[in-house]
Amino acid sequence: MSNSDLVRVEISAGVASVVLNRPEQRNAINPAMVDALRAAFDRIEADPEARVSILSGAGPVFCAGMDLKSFTNGEAEAILNGPYGFAGFVARTRRKPVIACVHGAALAGGFEIMLACDLVVATQEAIFGLPEVKLGLIAGGGGAIRLAQRIPRVLANELLLTGKTYPAAEMLRWGLINRVVAQGELVDIALELASEIARNAPLSITESLALSDQLFRGQEAALWQANDGALAALAGSQDVSEGIAAFFEKRPPSWSGI
């Protein structure tokens, strides 16, 4: 599958549709998908026709996060630390807003991609979570940084430290998503919201988004270095090797603390 097939892009009436397209792998992010997603938003940012994007996933889920097989094959650097961070997306400063259109599950890096978007619409059945602690990792794609900026610290810690999954209704109550809709309405509601934005003045959209992001971006700049250092330290630990092995072998991990 070519990179252009891994992330599909269509632009119409000011709205760019961006679709993660590895459905057989639950849209898990590998290096090729990183390149494809980065290129997709390079195109959108440069195209005057595109004013707002809808980011969705093909198949049964939005995104299951990092491809763990790629991680264990030594490709972590390309997935996590290339231009714009995890997935070539989460640390990108964009001039145009992105609406996450979530169905199925947004887990680990998939949840962090959602957190990097500007608005979120999700189905009633969608689930969300940061299970990295179950693998010996941290939510190093922005989750550990962004959650405590957006929701009360105790709720952020619950997500980060338990690794549990939560329903869309809970994410709506916590203020992490904008709309919860029926499965059959997801695309229509996201497109309606995107079209409302696209009808407005493009410079006004750009400047409004920049001002809205300024506080968060300023705080994040000082945190990414610490985040990346912690992630690098854990990536070489015995616990992460054990956590991923246990995941694939479908057994409880035996942690060593080293």
What features would you describe in this structure?
The chain is α/β, with parallel strands linked by helices. It has a single domain, classed as 2-enoyl-CoA Hydratase, Chain A, domain 1, CATH 3.90.226. 47% of the residues lie in helices and 16% in strands. The protein is built from eleven helices and nine strands. The strands form two sheets. It has a six-stranded mixed sheet, sandwiched between helices. A hairpin with a 2-residue loop joins strand 1 and strand 2. Helix 5 runs antiparallel to helix 6. The model has no long low-confidence stretch (mean pLDDT 93).
Which key terms come to mind for this protein?
258 residues, alpha/beta, 2-enoyl-CoA Hydratase, Chain A, domain 1, 3-stranded mixed β-sheet
